[in-house]
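JOB MANIFEST
job_type = single_chain_structure
chain_count = 1
residues = 104
[input]
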Amino acid sequence: MTQSLVWIGLFLAALACLPMAVKRFRTRNPVGAYASDAQLKFVSAVAVGQHQKVVTVEAGPQGARVSLTLGVTAQNVTCLHVAPLGPTSAQGPVDALTHAAAVL
């Protein structure tokens, strides 16, 4: 009888700790932590009306990314423009400036 009460108590304690464990996991691993591998990247949004927005996103795999300009309303999403993105430079802006100064 006492052994079953101990098991019930341990189960209830583990059940009570579950929300804290989920919260800790979410704070340590935010949704955008793996943004470099993401297929879709939010760039910007501009409100055009009360329920209308123009949103720019980047989509696709790393070698063939495109920029999508979307019109978003409460009822639907319309593709306004598609532009391919060129390959990005491996150098960051600071490295590029350092390289340019070294060349001069």
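[summary]
The chain has one domain: 2-103.
The first strand starts at residue 40 and ends at 47.
exit_status = 0
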